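Posting this for the archive.
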Amino acid sequence: IAITACTNDEWRIEFFTRDALPAGGTLAWAKPLSATGLPLPPAKDKTPALIAAARDGRTDAVKALLPQGEEINAQDEHGQTPLICAIKSNHVETALALIDAGADVKLVTQNGDLAIVCAASNGLVQVVTRLLDKGADINGMGRDNSALTPLMAACWAGKLDVVKLLCERGARLTQCNNYGEPALCSAALQP
C-alpha cells in the first residue's frame, strides 16, 4: 500500500500487486490497483516514483524500483535527486541504499544542491561518512547563493559530530563561501 499526497486536500491510496522477478525471489512493484482491483488513474503530480519513494523514506520501494530501470540520478521539477530527497528528509537508511546502489555522490543538482552539503547540514554522520568513502569532495561547494562547503554547512547548523568528522578527514578550514567567509566564521556566527 502506498499513500501519496496529490494536492493540498487530496490523497492517492494505491494497492500494488507484486510479481517475483527471475533473480531469485526479489519482489518488484507491478501496476497500482484500487481497492477493487481496477487500475488507478495516473497521479496528478509528476514526481518520478523513485524520487517519491526516497523522499518518503521507503527504502524497500527504492530497492525494488532500481532494478526496473528507474534513473538513480533523475531530477524532479525542483532539481531534486532521489539521494538529495532522502537526505533532506533525514532518511538515513534510504540515503545509504541509494549511495550503495551507485547514486552520483558528486552531482550538483539543477538548483545547486550537493549531497554532502545537505547531509552535513542535517547532521547525518553515517551519510557524510559513506559519501566521503564513495568519493564525495570534502570541500565541495554547491552552486546556491551562499555556496557552502560541507564544513561550513555543519558549522552553520551546529552539527558538531559532523564538524569533528570533516576536520578529522581533512576539510579545509580556510576555504571561503561566496561572501568571503571561511568555515570558522560560520561556526562563530552560531549562538
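The longest helix spans residues 92-100. Strands lie at 2-7, 10-20, 27-33.
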